[in-house]
What we know:
alpha/beta, single chain, nine-stranded mixed β-sheet
Amino acid sequence: MPRTGRLTAAATTLAALSLLATACTGPSADSSADDPKADVTLNFWHGWSAPGEVKAIEENVARFHAAHPNIKVNITGNMTDDKINQALRAGGDKAPDVVSSFTTDSVGKFCNSGAFTDLNPFLRKSGVDKEKVFLKTLLEYTQYKGNQCTLPLLSDSYGLVYNKTAFAAAGITEPPRTWNQFVADAQALTKTDGDSYSQLGVMPTFHGYETTPMRLAAQWSPTYFGADGSSNLAKDPAFAKMLTAQKDLVAKLGGYEKLEKFRAGFGDEWSAEHPFHKGLVAMQVDGEWRAAMAKEAGVGFEVGTAPLPVPDDQAGDYGKGYVSGTVMGISSASRKQNAAWELVKYMTTDTGAVVAFANAIHNVPSTLAALDSPDLQVTPEFKTFIDIARHAKSNTTPAQADGGTYQLTFQDLAYRSEKGDVPDLSAGLAATDRQIDTDIAKAK
């Protein structure tokens, strides 16, 4: 199963990552003196745990070792960010030299704290023009204030996965392109069953797996921070418009209490018991992996994919979406940074390596060359998410010194809004801005 930089991961590791600011510091990238051609052993830690994912990592590292026989790589999987943080603080020979993290929301903290080394000198030394190698949006979430302390290692695009069979039964011939069409389709696809549902058009609450405020806000092309660096939620009408539209959809589909009661019976997001697989919801906000997972679960309906709808006044921007991903960096405490860079460079920039990894775990490639590679396995359902990743208006949540705290603060407001507990949305957004600004100031 794919696991990349979703906020759900940030929420569970945020407390541990708050300690990262005191993580070890070491040699700068410019002064790293180790010989990358000498015999050396690197410790590489990553978070994947499913057998197929672990195998894909091992195969990629095996190909790297074949090209760099002097560099041995000890691989440790299923590593959470709190475990990584503890190891970085402890140091020693067993600490990781190279780290892959799902928590892109923490990149700002990784960079700001000095826990990961700035990769810009390595990129320059290797002649790698990052602007020509990686998608622009991916570079936005892998650096902080010019410090490129991580690089993208595959990516996720978020769109709409839908039940084509249910659409046909409801007389709907194509996926919704605008928000008003989305609302109408969600209502038409909803079938009530007493005080519950036999089929819900879409689960609109912000507790519904990948249906987060950040995913939906992306369709309004928001600006999270102003030119002066302060939180911009109250000043940018995109946030109020999104929250208002989502709350209205919640009401039209039965209300918060009824929807949450139905959601309580949903299965695990990564299992065959997912409500989309079971036909309990006809549309799902999700990533590029869901269509393949639904087919693997043996669903009895045809699966379709499309970009998420856009506000009606932005109909010309249809096709955009939220983009995130996995990141890879080098511990600033490592005394093997040049050798570590060879591994990072291979896994993040080598077209063959990126394509093989993307094919193996069904994620979107993170380099332009890999996206164009004839070896990339592209189904019609998967192509939707490649197109979202490439869309000029696709966007992400920017890196900040507080990691993902500002997103959690915004999400808390969204949770209260959908329940009807925010009587004055403008005031709520302004208060959220003040809290975000305070948190970021403390983190710096």
